[in-house]
């Protein structure tokens, strides 16, 4: 299995961790980035572990927008490292921080359009953080720019939007929350297996059965058990299908 969304740059002792994960049977991770510095770090990890790391670089939306200098440097980075990149991300629209600050959604919509144009120019998939009522806005931008491949990570959205995302052929991932949280279990019931990805968003900590367990791609083994049961399919078959989906987007 491949963890379809992890903040690998936020893990200390990453060399030791990767060795442990590989020994346990994890085939790789999609390492996403949150800003310019994080993008450099992700590319560094890609160079170090080329077979294991699928690199995505971008600016996380739940923070201030990048300044002009960072944006231009990032653009040059995309251009120079194009052949080492698997995607643009993590990008999208703020939701949680927007509730507590005076950020303007319009500025983020404009920025997401800029980033989407870059993804299209280099024919790279987009890793999206766009939840609740903002999922629909992000979806409209993907359609506007005719984006072929995109992944809505840790999605929470109204059913009508979930259905549209699926109809357009984009991918949706669930986190280990699917093992214990009804909202995610309901989401899963709408995702066809051929459009499902599994992720941890590590090092984000989970609760329920994962309280006090450090988040790592090893949690995917628990998620896949739940998912296989929900689809009434054999675990090996589900693992293979989800791996194939992940490679379809990121390879
Ligand atoms: Zn993330």
Automatic annotation (TrEMBL):
<dbReference type="InterPro" id="IPR001130">
    <property type="entry name" value="TatD-like"/>
</dbReference>
<feature type="binding site">
    <location>
        <position position="129"/>
    </location>
    <ligand>
        <name>a divalent metal cation 2</name>
    </ligand>
</feature>
<dbReference type="GO" id="GO:0016788">
    <property type="term" value="F:hydrolase activity, acting on ester bonds"/>
</dbReference>
<protein>
    <submittedName>
        <fullName>TatD DNase family protein</fullName>
        <ecNumber>3.1.21.-</ecNumber>
    </submittedName>
</protein>
<comment type="similarity">
    <text>Belongs to the metallo-dependent hydrolases superfamily. TatD-type hydrolase family.</text>
</comment>
<feature type="binding site">
    <location>
        <position position="201"/>
    </location>
    <ligand>
        <name>a divalent metal cation 1</name>
    </ligand>
</feature>
<dbReference type="InterPro" id="IPR018228">
    <property type="entry name" value="DNase_TatD-rel_CS"/>
</dbReference>
<feature type="binding site">
    <location>
        <position position="153"/>
    </location>
    <ligand>
        <name>a divalent metal cation 2</name>
    </ligand>
</feature>
<feature type="binding site">
    <location>
        <position position="5"/>
    </location>
    <ligand>
        <name>a divalent metal cation 1</name>
    </ligand>
</feature>
<dbReference type="Pfam" id="PF01026">
    <property type="entry name" value="TatD_DNase"/>
</dbReference>
<feature type="binding site">
    <location>
        <position position="90"/>
    </location>
    <ligand>
        <name>a divalent metal cation 1</name>
    </ligand>
</feature>
<dbReference type="InterPro" id="IPR032466">
    <property type="entry name" value="Metal_Hydrolase"/>
</dbReference>
<keyword id="KW-0378">Hydrolase</keyword>
<dbReference type="GO" id="GO:0046872">
    <property type="term" value="F:metal ion binding"/>
</dbReference>
<feature type="binding site">
    <location>
        <position position="7"/>
    </location>
    <ligand>
        <name>a divalent metal cation 1</name>
    </ligand>
</feature>
<keyword id="KW-0479">Metal-binding</keyword>
């Amino acid at each position: 299995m491949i963890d379809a969304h992890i903040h690998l740059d936020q893990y200390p002792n990453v060399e030791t961790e990767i060795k442990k994960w590989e020994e346990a049977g994890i085939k790789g991770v999609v390492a996403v980035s949150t800003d310019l510095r994080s993008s450099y770090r992700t590319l560094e990890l890609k160079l170090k572990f080329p077979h294991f790391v699928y690199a995505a670089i971008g600016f996380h939306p739940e923070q201030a927008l990048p300044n002009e200098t960072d944006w231009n440097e990032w653009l040059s980075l995309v251009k120079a490292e194009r052949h080492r990149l698997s995607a643009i991300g993590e990008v999208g629209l703020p939701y949680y921080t927007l509730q507590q600050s005076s950020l303007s959604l319009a500025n983020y919509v404009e920025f997401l359009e800029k980033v989407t144009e870059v993804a299209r120019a280099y024919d790279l998939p987009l890793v999206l953080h766009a939840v609740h009522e903002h999922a629909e806005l992000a979806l409209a931008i993907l359609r506007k720019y005719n984006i072929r491949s995109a992944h809505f990570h840790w999605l929470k959205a109204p059913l009508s939007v979930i259905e549209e995302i699926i109809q357009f052929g984009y991918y949706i991932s669930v986190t280990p929350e699917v093992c214990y949280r009804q909202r995610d279990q309901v989401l899963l019931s709408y995702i066809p297996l051929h459009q499902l990805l599994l992720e941890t968003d590590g090092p984000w900590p989970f609760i329920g059965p994962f309280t006090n367990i450090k988040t790592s791609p090893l949690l995917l083994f628990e998620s896949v058990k739940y998912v296989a049961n929900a689809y009434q399919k054999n675990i090996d078959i589900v693992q293979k299908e989800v791996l194939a989906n992940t490679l379809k987007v990121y390879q």
